[in-house]
Write a structure and sequence with these properties.
Elements lengths: L2 H10 L3 H12 L5 E2 H8 L3 H14 L2 E6 L2 E6 L1 H12 L7 H10 L11
Antiparallel strand pairs: 1-3, 2-3
Length: about 120
């Protein structure tokens, strides 16, 4: 992961709709959802959804494949984990005990983030 790729991912998630969309697909991994189900669950018109899907697919966070006349969208879980690792990999690199203290002070459950 490099900063350009990370920036593209963050840009894709900078919209509340796209963030909700991605979290919905993460929740429905690995099966994913077809566009109609996404639109219904997020309560947004399919024309708006198409715009947001295009942006998030372009970032690589979501993959799409045709199933007959439907398009199925799936969260790219490995890429999601890579971006989390990118953000946390150098946390307090010189002071791992400080990083552990930050983790304990956060609401993140133990084992969610990679240990350093």
């Amino acid at each position: 992961m490099n900063s350009t790729q990370a920036s593209n991912i963050f840009e894709a998630l900078s919209s509340e709709v796209r963030l909700d969309l991605f979290r919905l697909l993460v929740r429905n991994a690995p099966e994913g959802l077809v566009a109609g189900d996404i639109a219904r669950q997020l309560d947004i018109p399919s024309t708006n959804l198409s715009f947001h899907l295009k942006a998030i697919v372009h970032s690589g966070l979501v993959c799409v494949e045709r199933e007959g006349r439907f398009m199925r969208y799936r969260a790219n879980i490995p890429l999601m984990l890579e971006i989390v690792a990118y953000l946390t990999s150098e946390c307090c690199a010189e002071n791992p005990e400080v990083c552990r203290a930050f983790r304990k002070a956060s609401s993140v459950l133990p084992g969610i983030l990679p240990e350093r």
